[in-house]
Amino acid sequence: MEMSVLYMTHPLIKHKITILRKETTTTGEFRKLIEEIAMLMGYEALSDLPTEEISVKTPIEETVQPVIAGKKLAVVPVLRAGLGMVNGILALVPTAKVGHIGLYRDPVTHEPHEYYCKLPEKIDQRQIVVVDPMLATGGSAVAAVDYIKQHGGKRIKFMSIIAAPEGVSELMKAHPDIQLYVGCLDRCLNKDAYICPGLGDAGDRIFGTL
Ligand code: PRP
Ligand code: URA
Predict the structure, then answer these.
(1) Please, which of 1, 71, 167, 206 could form a disulfide with 135 given CB 3.0 to 4.6 Å?
(2) Every domain of the chain and the residues it spans
């Protein structure tokens, strides 16, 4: 199956990503922007959620209308930086369950290391939205999706705000069956595997640990 990659075109998303990149954007502004972009991207990414018809009674009459079908969605941030995107998705789907995948990149090898993972129950029956603002080498994204699949996850969407071409192709190669949503595709990685032009270290900028 071909992995589908959707690049965001909405002017509001483009504008907010530009402000996010600026070196002078403060921690508070950065956090707020990450959340707003996640909400706007989530709106696009969830446009194909299945619905079912239910009966409701309005003050006027009984009617049959659509609601979201199936088990509650699972939002799964890749720690730490993915945490910044969770509330944006929860603003759209307040009843979603939240899993966590703790990974950090080794500063020398750039390989991901797992330190904490927990997923909601019945993960095999849920639409899963993995969130991580940065898709650089793709190592963390591949490891996160590996973990979710090993625990039964099937319907997986991955949202990243800024991606490098290297990360997109690694993720496509390893997991051709998932859907990827990218806010902006950047030029390349530098020698330290940071995205260029990028925005620097997303986790540090969200949590003020620079
Ligand atoms: C960042 C980012 C991704 C990862 C991307 O996390 O949030 O998870 O790097 O890089 P990759 O595509 O090369 O794997 P980092 O490991 O810096 O951890 P942090 O979020 O805790 O700062
Ligand atoms: N992780 C980040 O936070 N930024 C990058 O540019 C690459 C990985």
Answers:
(1) 167
(2) 2-207
